[in-house]
Amino acid sequence: MVAPSDASEHRIGPVSDPADPLCALVLEQLGDGASNLALDELLLRRVSVESAAVETFLRFYGWPKPTLSLGMSQQASRVVDFGYCRRHGIAVVRRATGGKAVLHHREVTYSFISNDRSLFPAWSIQDTYRIISAALQQGLALLGIETNLAGTADGQRRSHRFHRSHACFATTLHHEILFAGKKLVGSAQRRTLRGFLQHGSILLDFDSCLLQGALRGKTLPNLASNVATLRSCLGEAPEFSAVISCLRDGFRQGLNVRIEACPLDPDMQSEAEVLGRTRLVAPCHSSS
User: Fold this and answer.
1) Where are the beta strands (DSSP E) in 157-250?
2) What is the model's pLDDT at position 31?
3) Total-model pTM
4) Which residues sit opposite 112 in a β-bridge?
5) Which residue ranges form the domains of the chain, and what is each CATH number?
6) Catalytic positions, please?
7) What's residue 150's pLDDT?
8) How far is the CA of 206 from the CAs of 72, 86, 201, in angstroms?
9) Closest by Cα among 98, 222, 203, 108 to 159
10) Exposure string (b/e) for 243-260, b if CB count within 10 Å is 16 or more?
């Protein structure tokens, strides 16, 4: 990720002025998937306390190893083939958000955490999805990818023929992002009384066999043909840094916010690493 030259002048904690909304771009990617998910959760806690300043955080990160994340309410013993995951070096973690299982592998993950009601005046789940999806769409357009939202006239909601699957990308909900009728971005949200977290996967590429092997239940032979990736949209997978740059600009333009780079306090990094270990359902042990 490209860090601005003045990043060292800031620390997380700026207060946004409703007349000039501020979005703090968190530069750090922590060393493993569980810690990155834990950091999302810690930032949600930060904006949710009664005395919290008005803050908005934007993050982008990748995954050094394949990691299966379970929705908050999914029962691991019913969802995960732990033997397959051990053999293929797939870690299993639990997210703070709901929804179905996601295999994080070749993707860019975004997360957006806020308690700023000047940015999200309606403060409803669907309106928040719609606003963030519009910003994501703007960023994808800068990459040269024109998308539609599920549930609109140009992006009709797909059939639920895969509704029994444990996989997130087997179903599409309203305001999720489609390319040519195929799901490109899978997102999930967690709300508190004062704030929310939304994060999601933007696929660079997709290994449907690895995902289906990691999950118990019915095999979905046509799953790959119903999922879009940045590679399938563009003919080749773009550079990770190029995707982040376009998405960042999409949020800046779509939300009309000023984005400043803010490094994490080392104490928060350490806390995320500790919390991440508690979110591991099973670590990966590669057979290679």
Assistant:
1) 177-179, 182-191, 196-203
2) 85
3) 0.85
4) 58, 198
5) 9-282 (3.30.930.10)
6) 168
7) 83
8) 23, 20, 11
9) 222
10) bbbbbbebbbebbebebe
